[in-house]
């Protein structure tokens, strides 16, 4: 029996990351997700078809521990999706930038450097970085976040050049995808008005973007804007 191709999604325990993981399982992939800690609801409702690896990206040692685990288990990836993300305010100063640098740049950098040991050597693979629309325009209120996501996009272009032609490397830059439960009607109205399409599309559009990049053999070093036309407003 042929082993299923494997996809690793960092930060895949909830919301968009988990939705994409579940959809990829439906597509017949073996899916591994990372998270900092197991979620309580998994005790009663275990994730179906998804393997969970606990990983701490706050230190180089934690990142390398994940890489060592993958190598020891002889994981051979079809795709690596860098979805792990944190959102800290600038009022935390240097700590905020350091924490977001580790998650948004250091972890992808070290994992990508290990691609020769992690990816299937006999087929074309994909690395997909999940960035943010704000990285392309900056943010006066979230300087560290937007800067670290912009750095992630820079990593993506550089690795695309380095790893071609065996591994395609691309970025997805979403804007509003789905609201949080506590978002007020006023906030939702204001957020929807920022885009030309004016909708809350839901996580399926991120999954569709991932599949497009994986299925297209002629796309690398690009950023797929997923913003509903915010650039038009």
Provide a descriptive summary of the structure in words.
The chain is of the alpha/beta class and 233 residues long. It has one domain: Rossmann fold, CATH 3.40.50. The protein is 39% helix and 17% strand. It is built from seven helices and seven strands. A seven-stranded parallel beta sheet has the order 3-2-1-4-5-6-7, sandwiched between helices. β1, α1 and β2 form a beta-alpha-beta unit. The relative contact order is 0.13. The mean pLDDT is 95. It is an enzyme of class 1 (oxidoreductase). Keywords: NADP, One-carbon metabolism, Oxidoreductase. Its EC number is 1.5.1.3, 1.5.1.50. Belongs to the short-chain dehydrogenases/reductases (SDR) family. FolM subfamily. GO terms for molecular function: dihydrofolate reductase activity.
Concise structural overview:
The protein has 233 residues and is of the alpha/beta class. It is built from seven helices and seven strands.
Can you give keywords for this protein?
alpha/beta, 7 helices, Dihydromonapterin reductase, 39% helix, Rossmann fold, 7-stranded parallel sheet, oxidoreductase, NAD(P)-bd_dom_sf, globular, 17% strand
Round the Cα radius of gyration to an integer and report it: 17 Å
Shape: globular
Count of distinct strands: 7
| Cα-to-Cα separation, first versus last residue | 52 Å
* Residue fraction in strands: 15-25%
Any idea of the CATH topology? Rossmann fold
Tally of domains? 1
Quaternary:
single chain
Low-pLDDT runs of 5+ residues are none
- Reading the helices and strands in chain order gives EHEEHEHHEHEHHE
How many separate helices?
7
The CATH class assignment is Alpha Beta
The major beta sheet can be summarized as: 7 strands, parallel
**Helix coverage percent:** 25-40%
The CATH superfamily name is: NAD(P)-binding Rossmann-like Domain
Residue-averaged pLDDT: 95
Q: What is the correct CATH architecture?
A: 3-Layer(aba) Sandwich
Give the strand order of the largest sheet, numbering strands 1, 2, ... along the chain: 3-2-1-4-5-6-7
Function: Catalyzes the reduction of dihydromonapterin to tetrahydromonapterin. Also has lower activity with dihydrofolate.
Keywords: NADP, One-carbon metabolism, Oxidoreductase
Catalytic activity: 7,8-dihydromonapterin + NADPH + H(+) = 5,6,7,8-tetrahydromonapterin + NADP(+); (6S)-5,6,7,8-tetrahydrofolate + NADP(+) = 7,8-dihydrofolate + NADPH + H(+)
Family: Belongs to the short-chain dehydrogenases/reductases (SDR) family. FolM subfamily.
């Amino acid at each position: 029996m042929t082993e299923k191709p494997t996809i690793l999604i960092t930060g895949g325990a909830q919301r968009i990351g988990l939705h994409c993981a579940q959809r990829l399982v439906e597509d017949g992939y073996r899916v591994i997700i990372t998270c900092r800690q197991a979620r309580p609801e998994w005790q009663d409702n275990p994730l179906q078809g998804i393997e969970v690896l606990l990983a701490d990206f706050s230190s180089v040692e934690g990142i390398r521990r994940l890489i060592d685990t993958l190598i020891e288990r002889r994981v051979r990836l079809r795709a690596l999706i860098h979805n792990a993300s944190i959102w800290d305010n600038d009022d935390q100063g240097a700590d905020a930038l350091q924490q977001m640098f580790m998650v948004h740049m250091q972890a992808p950098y070290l994992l990508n450097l290990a691609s020769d040991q992690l990816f299937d050597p006999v087929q074309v693979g994909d690395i997909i970085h999940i960035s943010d629309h704000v990285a392309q325009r900056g943010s006066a209120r979230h300087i560290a976040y937007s800067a670290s996501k912009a750095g992630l996009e820079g990593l993506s272009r550089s690795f695309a050049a380095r790893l071609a032609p065996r591994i395609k490397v691309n970025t997805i830059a979403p804007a509003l995808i789905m609201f949080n439960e506590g978002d007020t009607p006023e906030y939702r109205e204001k957020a929807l008005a920022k885009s030309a399409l004016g909708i809350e599309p839901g996580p399926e559009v991120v999954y569709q973007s991932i599949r497009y990049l994986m299925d297209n053999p002629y796309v690398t070093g690009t950023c797929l804007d997923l913003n509903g036309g915010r650039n038009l407003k």
